[in-house]
Amino acid sequence: MLKRIIFFIILMFSSFLVKANIVILNGLSHNYKVENGQVYKGKISLENTSNQPQNIKIFLQDFSYQSDGSIQYTTPNTNPKSNAEWIKMNTNLINVKSKEKTEILYEITVPKQVTDVGSYWSVIIVEPVDNIKPSNEKQGVNITSIVRYAIQIITDIDSEKATPNLKFEGVKIEKEDKLQILKIAVANEGNLYCKPSITIEIYNKKNGDKIATFSSLPMGLLPQTSKSFYIDISKMPPEKYNAVLIATDKDENAFALNVELEIKND
Length: 266
Description:
This protein is mainly β. 5% of the residues lie in helices and 55% in strands. A hairpin with a 5-residue loop joins β19 and β20 (254-263).
């Protein structure tokens, strides 16, 4: 009986396929500085890397995320800062031949009177269409997990009058694969999209000397969202330190926070 159960489990897993045959070639975030009443054109370039043709559906959704890892996709225009109504695409369904590259074209028509400055956004979802099919060769069904892409379309109106406002929401150290990882939760409470990175300067608690500086990778942060930034501090020996966290973006906006840091020898 045990052998039969093990065989059945192996059979089920061998029927589970993850398909990532569609590749986006020109990035998952498209940013525009826009003006009222103007029209802007863009495109999503993609490639079917598989040996089979692929149907793809394309549609709009609103989008937000939080530092706990949660992501919300909602109906267009449920977000008060959604620009989904401004975006028109040249198609909602395409068939891409094997090894073929193609483009999805879109047009952004900014309303003539947008009074609130700052960032407006939505996402274009690019999703391969596959069905759950009975298998003629094996027992059970072939379950195909489809990898879909969300391409952010971010439009900034009067960006010189808007600002991000970054707030440090939490700092903690977690051990991951024998590494000491500093996780910094940061929220953007402003009205402008930014792409900050986080730097930590670590100081000797007794004499105040700077000991080390580490930085995270930059990540985009939409208004009224938050993300966790990760910094590897495994090189630091167990001890109590003073530290300064500094968030900076490409426009040299800077936000700082003094913290006490305790690295334990777990």
